[in-house]
């Protein structure tokens, strides 16, 4: 730290007096007073590492944990002979502030890369074992909290909040929640995009259980383990096959067309279009891609007007509104 008064030299007697008063205040648990004396010493760059350790203790006892952590990191870099002492204090602060994941990451790295003195190694392992247990408990508590929020939002929350919570939960195991979530898949009021997200969560985790799914006035018994992914259904593959010429001639247009098809099928999932509709849907997604990209490009696939194509274009636009209103807000 730079001197606040660069032209003034602190006399040895005054320095010793400030150190004495600071340490006495620290022993008597007068942490604000101790901090005042330490800060005076720092103004003249007269604070020893012992005194700065006292400053860390003051920060901890006053609940100023961020400042304690910052100072510990600084001392770990600057006072190499006492590195493990500051590391121990640092880890203890993390433990006090329930930062168990940070402790596990830090100690994992240190156990692998450093030769730790025996006196500290045993203490670090004790902290590590406790942190591992508390971290797991913390994760379970957080999962439970997020799950309760998700269920609450399914029963009347915003689509955006439903999607946000579902995105978090999909990284975790679905097995604990299946019985509670299944009834929502047959709820006609629940947004179809959310239902698809839930079904994909179950599909990815190979859930093997029959459940009723309702979408767009259709109801069917579904087992997620027997589902295909959105673009791997036979119907999706047939539509893409019809667009093969576009893929060969204009990959950019094909990719845009494919994205439109994905969004439509995602909203409709797990239901799929009828065999009779496949040709018209292929034409509709291509026509929409040209429309969105403002391209006046001729293609044999759209050579003749088609009433069915026009109807499917309107249907797909409607589905896209549902998709974008939830996914991208």
Automatic annotation (TrEMBL):
SUPFAM superfamilies: Hypothetical protein MPN330, TPR-like. This is Tetratricopeptide (TPR) repeat protein. It comes from Salirhabdus euzebyi.
């Amino acid at each position: 730290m730079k001197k606040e008064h660069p032209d003034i030299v602190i006399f040895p007697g005054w320095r010793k007096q400030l150190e004495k008063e600071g340490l006495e205040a620290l022993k008597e648990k007068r942490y604000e007073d101790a901090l005042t004396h330490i800060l005076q010493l720092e103004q003249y760059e007269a604070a020893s590492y012992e005194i700065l350790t006292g400053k860390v203790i003051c920060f901890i006892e006053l609940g100023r944990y961020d400042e304690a952590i910052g100072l510990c990191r600084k001392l770990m870099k600057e006072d190499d002979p006492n590195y493990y002492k500051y590391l121990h204090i640092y880890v203890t602060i993390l433990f006090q502030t329930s930062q168990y994941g940070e402790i596990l990451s830090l100690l994992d790295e240190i156990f692998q890369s450093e030769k730790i003195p025996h006196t500290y190694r045993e203490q670090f392992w004790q902290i590590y074992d406790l942190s591992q247990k508390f971290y797991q408990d913390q994760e379970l508590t957080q999962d439970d909290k997020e799950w309760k929020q998700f269920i609450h939002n399914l029963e009347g929350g915003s689509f955006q909040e439903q999607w946000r919570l579902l995105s978090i939960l999909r990284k975790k195991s679905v097995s604990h929640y299946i019985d509670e979530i299944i009834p929502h898949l047959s709820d006609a009021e629940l947004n179809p995009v959310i239902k698809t997200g839930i079904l994909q969560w179950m599909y990815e985790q190979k859930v093997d259980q029959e459940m009723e799914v309702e979408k767009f006035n259709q109801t069917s018994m579904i087992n997620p383990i027997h589902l295909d992914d959105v673009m791997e259904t036979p119907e999706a593959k047939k539509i893409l096959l019809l667009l093969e010429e576009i893929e060969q001639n204009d990959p950019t247009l094909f990719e845009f067309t494919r994205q439109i098809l994905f969004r439509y099928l995602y909203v409709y999932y797990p239901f799929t279009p009828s065999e009779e509709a496949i040709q018209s849907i292929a034409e509709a997604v291509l026509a929409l891609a040209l429309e969105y990209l403002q391209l006046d490009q001729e293609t044999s696939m759209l050579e003749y007007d088609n009433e069915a194509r026009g109807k499917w274009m309107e249907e797909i636009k409607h589905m896209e509104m549902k998709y974008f209103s939830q996914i991208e807000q």
